[in-house]
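Continuing the batch. This is chain 6 of the set; chains 1 through 5 are on the previous pages. Same settings as before, nothing changed between runs. Recording input and output for traceability.
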Amino acid sequence: MKTTLTEENYLKALFHLVDNEGKVTINELSKFLNVKMPSVNNMMKKFAEKSWVIYETYKPLRVTEKGRREAALVVRKHRLTEMFLVKKMNFGWENVHEIAEQLEHVHSQVFFDKMDEILDYPKFDPHGEPIPDKDGNIIAQDLQKLSNCEVGETVIFTSVTLSDDAFLSYLTERKLLLNTKIKIIKIESFDKSFTIEIEGKKEILSKKATEKILVKK
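Output for chain 6:
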């Protein structure tokens, strides 16, 4: 049976919220989706019937391997679509999320497999996030937030956390794109803002921005 649009949105939320032990709380899902707790409870009971989660009253949910795979396949559709829009249709990386939100609910696997082939099987989406393969497997990345780095370090901008269009536009205006080398010049003790150097030019980033930027050394 095909998953519904609502089920796919819940699956995607599980993908983003689950911790390293495969756990997530009803409250976390409620806040993330802006859905009332009783509605989340009812949906998770349905997910338990499909063996996507293990549901026990007053305990965190445990996402099963089957549930993880189903969630990853929804994310695959979203991230492949974003990549196609950027690489083949010349959209800016800040303009693709909303369109991908709509197309991710298309149920034709062959459609997305063909998209994957046309793109030559990309491993990452335009925002640097790994694209799950057709079996739901995903590349593990060893990244850290820019905010956790220290003065004098030079790192490579690799990905963004859950991003919004305004933040991506903010980065584009500063020519801070993926794979850019970032040298940390100064960290303000007052507000933890960063002075960085990119391609010989200095920029100041707020703490909020450095929390959203993921880097590797």
